[in-house]
Amino acid sequence: MKHPGNLKKAAGATRKNKRVGRGAGSGHGGTAGKGANGQKARSGTRVRVGFEGGQMPMNRRLPKFGFTNRFRLEYQEVNVGRLQELVLQNKINTSNTINAELLYSLGVLRKKSIPYKVLGNGELKSALIIIADKVTKSAEEKIKAAGGSITINNAVEETKSAEKITTKNAVEETKPVDNVVEEIKPAGGEETTNG
Q1: What is the DSSP code string of 39-77?
Q2: Alpha-carbon span 161 to 110, nearest angstrom
Q3: Where are the domains of the chain?
Q4: Does CATH number 3.40.50.300 belong to domain 76-156?
Q5: For residues 114 and 139, what is the distance between their CA atoms, to the nearest angstrom?
Q6: What is the pLDDT along the chain (195 residues), one digit of tens a residue?
Q7: The whole model's pTM is what?
């Protein structure tokens, strides 16, 4: 029976402190586990990531190229073959309108906030009504050949254009304005002459 008098800690819950510098027989004597002398053998030292002792570091030696387009728009991909599989599995009907909300509820899309694009891989035999943010030419041909229709959602392009306009206006507002120096005249509008 367990009671406060015979309770024990679980195995491995506690262990002895590592006592360094107590002779070679302990296994942690001499340099106390810090190797040979040097900066890192001293207490309180810290070498920042990427520092190579003063020589030109790797991130500055390598050439830089390319840039990151902040207006890049990532699309989730859905193939027409995947849509045909959903039809065969009776998860979608040909009478249903296929949009982002429906595909998200079926687990085909990861997020509703990210637009999706229909690709042309696979075969499509069912006539489907699809509303997508983007579609490839091959996918559009297969959808129409099967008797379906595809509608492009223009809200994504409008949002992208609005972001570009907002950024452009913000840049123009931050441009320095030339200082305008006005001629100061005395009260009464009369100019004063020296002498």
Answers
A1: GGGSTT----TT--TTSPPHHHHS-------TT----EE
A2: 25
A3: 76-156
A4: no
A5: 20
A6: 778 888 888 999 999 999 999 999 999 988 888 888 888 888 888 999 999 999 999 999 999 999 999 999 999 999 999 999 999 999 998 888 999 999 999 999 999 889 999 999 999 999 999 999 999 999 999 999 999 999 998 766 666 666 666 666 666 666 555 554 555 555 555 555 554
A7: 0.54
